[in-house]
Write a structure and sequence with these properties.
alpha+beta; 6-stranded antiparallel sheet; 6 helices; about 25% strand; globular
């Protein structure tokens, strides 16, 4: 636990009035769940100003005591509970998360987070489509013994139109995973030379560590994905095409 980073995050998770946020951002309603509107959030935002954030990998904190409606993103989102616990709802699942647990939410997956209290800190790591190349993600397709988990992570990161797709990792407070998360947050909020490159490498390291957890304890991972048996084969083919093209250049 990094008290300096936690204190910094405390300052960034101030209450947000949804009506004011809605009036400023004017998000489009893209669907309804049980009569509740689902909004399209297609831009990452800075914590306090709510101005657009152009970074390919960006971090925000979940606002305290604040209503967050159902919404979708056109990017992958990782949510990490650093303190306390929280509840995430998708169109068909209720997911209870505890400290140091991580969920990877696929693009276009409808979800919302129940209001969190002052004892909880949740960070959201947004991974835009251009953050990684298919070659960067190649390692996710070649992990013996955890093919289903590594392929699922690959499809979340490389695929469009996931609909209902996520991986939830019960990390059991694994120190390397937790330290990597804190390193990513530190590089983001306290940037220095090469911080963007370091963040990218550490996010990939984080995925590797989560896959390792899956290989040792498959019961520590809950996965939900859309039913499309052709998806992984297509993505693997795309990887092959990209590699072949690079060799010819």
């Amino acid at each position: 636990m990094n008290t300096e980073i936690l204190e910094l995050l405390h300052q960034n998770r101030e209450y947000k009035d949804w009506k004011k946020v809605e009036n400023k951002l004017k998000p489009l309603i893209v669907d309804y769940i049980n009569g509740e509107p689902v909004y399209g959030f297609y831009e990452t935002l800075k914590d306090k100003s709510l101005n657009k954030n152009g970074q390919l990998i960006s971090i925000s904190t979940q606002p305290v005591d604040s209503f967050v409606p159902y919404h979708i993103h056109n990017y992958v989102e990782m949510m990490v509970v650093l303190l306390g616990n929280c509840t995430i709802r998708t169109a068909s699942n209720t997911i209870h998360m505890k400290q140091d647990e991580i969920i990877v939410m696929g693009r276009d997956t409808i979800h919302k987070v129940d209001e969190i209290d002052s004892g909880t800190i949740v960070v959201n790591i947004a991974l835009k489509p251009a953050a990684f190349s298919l070659n960067d993600l190649d390692f996710l397709t070649h992990k013996e013994g955890v093919q289903s988990i590594s392929s699922m992570l690959f499809s979340l990161l490389a695929s469009n139109n996931s609909k209902v797709a996520f991986n939830l990792f019960h990390t059991n407070h694994e120190s390397h995973v937790v330290n990597t998360v804190y390193d990513i947050i530190s590089e983001y909020y306290q940037p220095d030379s090469f911080s963007n490159q370091i963040i990218k490498m550490e996010v990939l390291e984080l995925f590797l560590r989560l896959i390792r957890i899956a290989s040792h304890s498959p019961n520590l991972v809950n996965a939900k994905k859309r039913q499309n048996n052709n998806e992984i084969d297509l993505l693997t083919l795309l990887l092959y095409i990209e590699k072949t093209t690079n060799l010819l250049l």
